[in-house]
Amino acid sequence: MSFHPQMEYAPARFHRSERKLAEPGEPFKYTAENQAKFDEVVKRYPPDRRKSAILYALYLVQNQQGYITAAGMKLVAEQIRCTPAEVEDVVSYYTMFYTRQVGKYVLNVCRTLSCALLGAERVTEELSNKLGIKPGETDPSGTFTLMEVECLGACDRAPVVMVNDDWHEGLTPEQCSKFIDDIRSRGQSAFTGCHLRKEK
Amino acid sequence: MAYEPVLTSHVNEPNSFTLDFYQKNQRGYEALRKALTQKPNDIIEQVKASGLRGRGGAGFPTGMKWQFVLKDTPKPKYIACNADESEPGTFKDHVLMERNPHLLIEGCAIACYAIGAKVAYIYIRGEFYHVQQILEAELEKAYKAGYLGTNILGSGFDCDVFIHRGAGAYEAGEETALIESLEGKRAQPRLKPPFPAVEGLYNCPTAVNNVETLCNVPLIVLNGAEWFAKLGPEKNGGPKLYCISGHVKKPGVFEASMHTTLRELIYDYAGGIRGDRQLKAIIPGGSSVPLLLPDQLDTPASFDAIQKAGSLLGSAGLIVLDDTVCMVWLAMNLLHFYRHESCGKCTPCREGCDWLYKLLQRIERGEGQDKDLDLLFGVANNITGKTLCAFGDAAATPVLTTMKLFRHEYEAHVREGRCTLPADWRRQGPVLAGAH
């Protein structure tokens, strides 16, 4: 008999990663513009500390191809002068890096306390119903990915959704369906953005 | 409320983020000019005399922190500005960086001069990309105007300020984890000592300061330590930004002195409770601190007074909870956060958070048993004090504080086999349970 009461353990995927990195195909290369950006930013750090630029290098890869592949990590390793394993170590830690293809719009719904108090759970539910996908999934057309994320730091405008690098504030469950239609028809202009920017 | 804001006095005006506006209306860069005529040590002394305490959460005296930075060393020194504002309920640095970025830039430059650093890195969280764009544009203007770069204002002092974008890690807000992340590694805390003041970034002496802390520095240099200290109660001087969210009519960031009571903050500044419902509890300093009850509303919101009342001011992120909130659900929501954000370095925290979350989920679903409550208490107590950084204590706090103050709710969940909350205010269904 076990000392601990019986409890449900997390599904296997919580303990063992099921991430499959894209097979290394063609070697990945930065565009000339991105290479120049990287070379500029790496100068901000001491010459023997190129690894400090790793997050920036990874953002460039992600911006260029939408997500980070094994080939992309290999390139970053070459640029930083470290091993690809060290790059994967970093990629797998930070939540803003995607190792799988994501939709054109990634809807990151904040689920932490202040947003949850004002209906974030229902927002996720509505978005999920509208798009027919669960959090963590991408819709078949590759337009939307739905994610639940932790506190985005805009608790006064709860519930908040981060769409790619942009914000949409105060999204009520009732508006969700229209919000998706608006993005489909108007793209980026459907987001409210950060209220601090609009008031300038 | 006769308090005149000094940090956020102009944030609602158009173009308040520009260099021109800053110079015209906020005596922009006068503090830097004044600081460069003084000895670095004098500036540290002024900051010490002002009693400025770190605004990131711990409330440690900033002057002391700077004084601890190793002086006699051939190594370079660094300022790391902590703009990884991730504590649930906190959104004050966001306003400062977006609407008053030059105050931060000036603060960074003065801090560098005071401790003898030539480089400051602003570690901004990845989600603040729109803020980062403003900061970057304004930094460039500061360089062009000669407030940053080489030989600043003809004084011979060189200083660079760089922005470093994080990528979504709550733990990066811990000072040694922030340094690890700046070095290009996973944001995991280091064993202390050595403290960053001795061995920080690249093993060099480093001071890690919060955005709001650094924004206060130009004000101290310009107006004097005495002026600053007099803005608040003893040992809690200066202006303070309070972030109020949750069930209030007018959530937002409010600047006040630390004389202000919680009642004034919630009922005067934030307009009272939404729908005029009953106040149930307050989280006074971000999700990591113990709850306060309505009968403690007259506590001044200062570091010392809140601590005396049994909680912590932390990052001054007030989350207001009305009588519809189920405390088991609240702990479950926060433990989901801590489970997700635990960096995984220390076993008690990594395993404990997951365990706590599952127990809470079970109780909230109505499947809990009496012994689960003791287990919950035991697990939480086995995390506190057994981890490298304060994260472990922070993660156990929501459980311990709700169990202490609202144990009857836990018991009711177990007894009745369901969440005792009226079901209509929030359709908290199993629809998305398990989809993490």
Compact description:
The complex is a heterodimer of chains A (200) and B (436). Chain A has helices at 12-15, 32-41, 54-65, 70-80, 84-93, 113-117, 120-131, 176-186, 195-198; strands at 105-110, 144-149, 161-163, 166-168.
Q: What key phrases describe this protein's structure?
A:
heterodimer; A: 200 residues; alpha+beta; 2 domains; four-stranded mixed beta sheet; 9 helices; 4 strands; B: 436 residues; Rossmann fold; Ubiquitin-like (UB roll); de novo design (two linked rop proteins)
Give the topology, please:
The complex is a heterodimer of chains A (200) and B (436).
Chain A: H1 12-15, H2 32-41, H3 54-65, H4 70-80, H5 84-93, E1 105-110, H6 113-117, H7 120-131, E2 144-149, E3 161-163, E4 166-168, H8 176-186, H9 195-198
Parallel strand pairs in A: 1-2
Antiparallel strand pairs in A: 1-3, 3-4
Helix pairs in contact in A: 3-4, 4-5
Chain B: H1 19-25, H2 30-36, H3 40-50, H4 62-68, E1 78-83, H5 92-99, H6 101-115, E2 119-124, H7 129-144, E3 160-165, H8 175-182, E4 206-210, H9 211-223, H10 225-230, E5 239-246, E6 252-257, H11 262-269, E7 279-283, H12 303-308, E8 317-322, H13 327-341, H14 347-364, H15 370-383, H16 391-405, H17 407-416
Parallel strand pairs in B: 1-2, 1-4, 2-3, 5-8
Antiparallel strand pairs in B: 5-6, 7-8
Helix pairs in contact in B: 2-6, 2-9, 3-4, 3-6, 5-6, 6-9, 13-14, 13-16, 14-15, 14-16, 15-16, 16-17
Give a written overview of the molecule:
The complex is a heterodimer of chains A (200) and B (436). Helix content of chain A is 40%, strand content 9%. Chain A has 200 residues and is of the alpha+beta class. Chain A folds into two domains: 12-93, Arc Repressor Mutant, subunit A (Orthogonal Bundle), CATH 1.10.10; 105-198, Glutaredoxin, CATH 3.40.30.10. A four-stranded mixed beta sheet of chain A has the order 2-1-3-4, with helices on one face. In chain A, helix 3 (54-65) packs antiparallel against helix 4 (70-80) and helix 4 (70-80) packs across helix 5. By secondary structure, chain B is α/β, with parallel strands linked by helices. Chain B folds into three domains: 19-230, Rossmann fold (3-Layer(aba) Sandwich); 239-322, Ubiquitin-like (UB roll) (Roll); 327-423, de novo design (two linked rop proteins) (Up-down Bundle), CATH 1.20.1440.230. Chain B is built from 17 helices and eight strands. Chain B has helices at residues 19-25, 30-36, 40-50, 62-68, 92-99, 101-115, 129-144, 175-182, 211-223, 225-230, 262-269, 303-308, 327-341, 347-364, 370-383, 391-405, 407-416; strands at 78-83, 119-124, 160-165, 206-210, 239-246, 252-257, 279-283, 317-322. Chain B has a four-stranded parallel beta sheet, with helices on both faces. In chain B, helix 3 packs across helix 6 (101-115) and helix 5 (92-99) packs across helix 6. The longest helix of chain B is centred in the C-terminal third of the chain and has 18 residues, at 347-364. Chain B starts with 18 loop residues before the first helix and ends in a 20-residue tail after the last helix. Chains A and B meet through helix 3, helix 5, helix 6 and helix 7 of A and helix 5, helix 7, strand 3, strand 5 and strand 8 of B.
